[in-house]
Amino acid sequence: MRIAYLDCASGISGDMMLGALVDAGIDLIRVQAGIDSLGLPSCRLVVDEVKKCGFRALQLRVDHEPEHAHRHLHHIDDMIESSSLSDSQRALARKIFMRLAEAEAKVHGTTIQKVHFHEVGAVDSIADIVGSAIAWDLLGVDRIVCSPIPTGTGFVEIAHGRCAIPAPATGELLRGIPLAVSSVEGELTTPTGAAIVASLVDEFGSLPAMAVQSIGYGAGQKDFQHPNLLRLIVGESTEDKSSYSTDKITLLETNLDDTTGEAVGHCADLLWQAGALDVTLIPNQMKKGRPGILLQVQCRQSEAEKLAEIIFRETTTLGLRRSNIERLVLPREVVRVLTTWGEVAGIVAQLPDGSRRFSPEYGSCCQIADKNKVALATVDTAARQAFAATHNK
């Protein structure tokens, strides 16, 4: 399993993230090509090798023509949709911007459609976020682990005035994420950096067991009494390949006996859309013989607060049981196989005995089946046969 570890000893920002990815080996030319396709005004990524308290790193900056535009989420969505980014790169970029929109909407008491991006709607922030989405996709890791994050102390000037650190949107984005103590005067973690972490990271903790393949250092723009660096460590897990890997997730659950079936179904749909790992509805019998439903939601620890808010808003529950649990996980990878009707995406899981199991993605099979007017089961079978023919030799 390929692992990435984010060592955020000096916090994280968008330019630090992209600088570390390029320093770890990502081709800047390919990232620039994706940025160019957004149609931003004369936007160029520039990296310089610098030293921070004696340690070398790449410092990335975005050169662009001056502009005074402030964008809404739909403006940025349109840019991404019309770009040359791959589907996975588009999805990740949109996920990061959606996290930002949700945080801004929460702190300003508005909706994500009405959120008026200021700093994060500027050319340099768009380039940092989309560039990071492209670079992470190119890096191709299976699991991302991150250290606790320091935010810094003091105040920062933003479009809405002077705010205490962490800035309101940054604080909202870091809900459920472990923070590190820091007495440094200044903003170490920006909203862009927090949104990237909240969108990408699978687990927070110490450096996992791995055989290191590359290390990248991204430099922040400011100078402190410590090295203002983000370190990205990439490698292969040294865990026994035949054994299960583990991660930590959150389980949210509640019993419902006075919520309509339509409301429960709608809530489940929203939970899936918001990034839940699994949503389960189990019929049960509650007090006084009333029929009820046990709602169980599995999610990443960093997303528990957001999903809990959905459950409280959409159902009649007065309380949620919340527990952090360890999950056994099979190593897996995304593959695409070629059938008569086109490519089908699927997941390959490695079983404890070393054998591999391929499962076509339901959504991918549906698209092929609908487009070509063939049965879903026929596409599923063809995909499994294509995988067996090309991967099990």
From TrEMBL:
One of its GO terms (molecular function) is lyase activity. Keywords: Lyase, Nickel. Belongs to the LarC family. HAMAP family: LarC. This is Putative nickel insertion protein. It comes from Bythopirellula goksoeyrii. The lineage of its organism: Bacteria, Pseudomonadati, Planctomycetota, Planctomycetia, Pirellulales.
